[in-house]
Prior knowledge:
By secondary structure, the chain is mainly α. It has one domain: ABC transporter involved in vitamin B12 uptake, BtuC. Helices cover 72% and strands 0% of the residues. The chain is built from 15 helices and no strands. It has helices at residues 3-32, 40-58, 61-85, 90-108, 135-139, 143-161, 163-173, 175-180, 185-211, 223-233, 238-252, 254-261, 267-271, 273-286, 289-295. Helix 2 crosses helix 9 (185-211) and helix 6 crosses helix 7 (163-173). It is globular, with a radius of gyration of 20 Å. It comes from Psychromonas aquatilis.
Amino acid sequence: MDIDLLTNILYMMIMTGTPLLLVALGEMVCEKSGVLNLGQEGMMLMGAVAGFIAMYHTDSYVLGFIFAMLVGVLMSLLFAVITLQLNANQVAAGLALTIFGTGLSAFLGTDYEGKQIPVLPSLSVSQLQDIPLIGKALFAQNAIVYLSWLLVVLAYLFFRYHRQGLSIRAVGEDPAVASNLGLPVMTIRYLCVAFGGAMAGLAGAYLSIAYTPMWTEGMVSGKGWIALTLVVFASWRIERIVLGAYLFGFASIMHLVAQGLNWDISSNLLAMMPYVATLVVLVMLSRDKQKLKLFEPMSLGKPWHRSN
């Protein structure tokens, strides 16, 4: 296999896996606090259309990503109010959020369908990007890719060494005990849900501003659902989320790899690979429920109020 092809595969694998990494990281933090938000797909779509519209009218990448994150936070807080304050079922509320975000994003993006914006430039390091095989993948990416790596490191250190990280884990395991210890359970859960929304909005904006600089209805194409599976596949561990995100990213570009190798396989068939991989992961996880329970936050998806 040609080294240039391998270099491009690694480069595209990281680019394609970045939105999955961002949204999965946000959902992992949310779930570690005991809240299950299935609205990632809808929040990503809203972030994608909001970021694109902001970038289209302001010509500012920074404002585009900030606006997308704010929209993601607002969507997530709507979910938080419904589930944490009004005690609604988290699964049903998350599904409703996805449906709501899908419809609203399509409505808001009607006038922007097919319009294009300048692609987010890469922050290349001229000398390092020429390193064989890994140079382009590691040293010629855009700012959001590097931001995702920084967030991974910070999240790892936060949950491993910081007191507040331990507080989130305590709330996710048993909110009643955490409350008795003086921890502000509802505040922690609100903040974790908001962080998850911000990451979903950022991931959506990455798709419409950095990856394919245009808005198309339904452009997220199930990546929110894949990210939800990824969190479980990674057993709520950050290092495995990184690995899983890039593996799914590789599966997403299999049709491009096939073209480069001149494989006589339908591109539509290869485009199914990420979703086939998701189903395979779900089947594998369902076979060992006891092992999965060892890592799953004990209060995940369960409502809680101080009066309890």
